[in-house]
Specification:
Strand content: under 5%
Number of strands: 0
Shape: flat
Distance between the termini: 20 Å
Number of helices: 5
Length: 99
C-alpha cells in the first residue's frame, strides 16, 4: 500500500491528474479545503466530472446516497474553525510546492 501511495504522489507531482485515482485525491483535498469535510454527494462528480454520460453512470449511486441520508443540506452551516483549516492548508501548500 505504501508503494501505491508513493506512486500516486509521484504521478501527481509530474502532472498526471487525469486518472480516476488522481481526480479522487485532488477532489478529496479540494472538498476538505472548501468545506472542511468530505461531501460524499459531490465526491463522485469530482472523480467522473460533469459529462452527461458519466453523470448518468453514477446516478444510481447518487440516489442510494440520497435515500441513506448521505446528501448534506446545501443550506447547512459551515463547520467551526473552517477558516483555520483553510489557512493551515494554504500554509502547507506554500511550504510544499508539490501539494
Amino acid at each position: 500500500m505504501e508503494a501505491i501511495i508513493r506512486l500516486r504522489r509521484a504521478s501527481l507531482e509530474r502532472g498526471l491528474t487525469t486518472t480516476g485515482g488522481a481526480r479522487h485525491i485532488l477532489g478529496f483535498a479540494d472538498l476538505v479545503e472548501q468545506q472542511g469535510r468530505l461531501n460524499e454527494a459531490i465526491m463522485p462528480l469530482k472523480v467522473v466530472g460533469f459529462a452527461p454520460r458519466a453523470v448518468w453512470r453514477i446516478l444510481p449511486l447518487g440516489l442510494k446516497m440520497f435515500f441513506k441520508g448521505k446528501v448534506p443540506n446545501p443550506l447547512g452551516h459551515a463547520i467551526p474553525g473552517l477558516s483555520h483549516l483553510q489557512a493551515l492548508i494554504r500554509r502547507v501548500r506554500r511550504a510544499t510546492p508539490s501539494v
